Amino acid sequence: MTDEAAVDGGPEDGSALLEVRDLRVAYAAGGGSRGMPREVVHGVSLTVRPGEVVAVVGESGSGKSTTAHAVLGLLPLGGEVTGGEVRFQGRDLLALDERRMRAVRGAGIGFIPQDPTVSLNPVRRVGDQVAEALLVHGLADGRGARARAVELLAEAGLPAPHVRARQYPHELSGGMRQRVLIAIALACRPRLVVADEPTSALDVTVQRQILDHVAGLTRENGTAVLLITHDLGVASDRADRIVVMSGGEVVEEGPAARVLREPVHPYTKNLTAAAPGLGAWRTVGRGDSRAAVPSSASADGTAPRRIVDVNGLGKDFPLPGKAVLHAVEDVSFHIAPGETFALVGESGSGKSTTARLVLGLERATAGRIEVAGVDVAALTGTDDRPRPRGGRRAAARELRGLRRRVQVVSQNPYASLDPRFSVGDVIAEPLRAFGVGDRAERRELAAASAAQVALPPDVLTRRPAELSGGQRQRVAIARALVLRPDVVVCDEPTSALDVSVQAQILDLLTGLQHELGLALLFISHDLAVVARIAHRVGVMRRGRLVESGPVERVLADPAHAYTRELLDAVPGRRLAPV
Description:
This protein is an alpha/beta fold and 578 residues long. The chain contains 22 helices and 21 strands. The chain has a seven-stranded mixed beta sheet with strand order 1-11-10-4-9-8-7, sandwiched between helices. It has a six-stranded mixed beta sheet with strand order 17-18-19-14-20-21, with helices on both faces. The protein is globular and about 75 Å long. The chain starts with 5 loop residues before the first strand and ends in a 9-residue tail after the last helix. Residues 1-14 and 285-303 have low confidence and may be disordered.
């Protein structure tokens, strides 16, 4: 711990269920066995009492997950505990060999990993994977383990657990797969559960359901929880105490309410200021820094200029047999230049499908989409729209021209950039595709676009894999802006980022909107993020727009029950400043 750390007194040593003292972890250079080890966890100490929830928070690279994996004896290849103690119920876990440690994992300490897609065996039924935890620790025989697995899936909140037990992971939703991991972690009724970012990839309402189940089950069994998270909102709602990590060290520790309302360390202050659930509600409806919203009518009473105009939009997908999925139904909205309109809702609500329709990447079943005066529905072949003169070839030319004016920033900065290209080539790619300038001019325009999003010049020669997540998302934004579009569609552009990086990207988008007069269609499942960036918001549920209006009105006085449900699910509002 650094000299600046502010640490409230923890429990006495004798009352600690888990006691970590001066833990140090190092990785061999290159992740192998050769080279000088590099220390990544520097003297971390923390305690967890019986029945207590302790949250370890910090950004990516802070050492929080490495600390959790060291406790479990699950460090990856090249990782090694080089100092300190890890005691569970007074027993030194670092002194145990792998065979004895396996007996502790599952029975004494349960583990809920972050990604159920990776953590579950894709070729085994989920019921068998839950039953395996009971069989390994000798708590049931074959038939009894299978019956108990169904009960555990029911306890974890899966509907029709006897049916789900016979399904494979790919047949379940993300939330259901996460519940399977919870059932496995709690199968042996462990005294401690280590939960490593257990809900980071889930919608806020599903996230709340999952965390409610964990809280209920652990409370019934008197189980303690060591919660690893980068989300201070989740920590504020769920933890009794919070441990803040930065650079492999504990910089602050104490009761959750104290740490979040009266942070002492500068790093904690920055985290709380950046967390949308904790800070965005301060300024909603109070004249914050968002761009001025274009008025609903001009001085002469005529309608305002609209860069995007969507009316009665619909999209159907055929299902096996004669069934049809109505993914989007009768959706209407508009966006003015310099305005941000946010579409929010859970996965499957139709918001991303709507965005793809606006981009011309899907054919609408019904309705009208005009972007910069161009009828997108006609160009993409909607059945009830006339084709432009010249047929399909002319429509393709017009659609290609439209795409110069409408660009997209995708959710995943890891997957949206070609790993074979340098960053300069990635940003210049749209210029090459549309035949803009020669090689030298494109290089100059790419450098200017990179500078616009605050990327240093030396980044242009590097590859995406050499950059952080936040830097990669800046590259994606620079690529979207290099053609000087009128409209940018942002599809969950910050959901994969740490809160401080997320705040930087949101501030960057707001600043660029001020500078360039961009219209933004912002897709999100998180109303706290929307509160920070949007002028107006539309709430989608099951393909329909159930509520729409100025963000201040919708968030302060929601009219629809579903909007209120989304707002209630935003983590961190319990401790949000008033």
